[in-house]
Amino acid sequence: MPHLFTPADYRNMPWRNGGGTTCELFRLSHPARPDDFALRLSIADVAQGGPFSLFPGVDRSLMLLEGAGMLLDFGTHTVRMDRPCQPIDFPGEAAVDCRLLDGPLRDFNLMVARDWGQAALRVLALAEGAELALSGCQWTLVHALAGQLRLGGRLIEAGQLLLLQDEAVSLRAGPASRVVVVEAGATV
């Protein structure tokens, strides 16, 4: 049965390194370590540069949502993130230092514990009336960045998150819809 999360369901949490806060959209507890996550989606408002929090054993996907962007220094190379909705992947144990390009920004984070499973993130811009067919992964999360989606008679609006577990469904896009789709599953 699909579950719809709204901003009232999300949790604001401090960053692990104390440098800011993030809005946790979804957290799946790790089966072997209930205080840790197996899968986590969040949106962070970043007001200043500095080091990223370390998450050993976690695979991360990060993408810019709003703002001019940032320069990520991995020590051996740098990555310029200045185009919205272009995710980059990196290990959570990587020492990353962030420099903002021109003021505050907002970013989207996907984190997956490697000893639990894997996840893939994609961003889709959908024309009005387009159908988004989801195949029924173990965990499918659809976050509406803009516009609206319909699941039968159910409306999913910008800022909301749809959770599906082992369900194949089709969503119909409203005008100017943009969504983040995360498909994840345990491999242990």
Automatic annotation (TrEMBL):
CDD domains assigned to the protein according to its UniProt record, in alphabetical order: cupin_HutD_N
Superkingdom to which the source organism belongs: Bacteria
PANTHER family, alphabetized: PROTEIN VES
Protein name: HutD family protein
Species this protein is from: Chitinimonas arctica
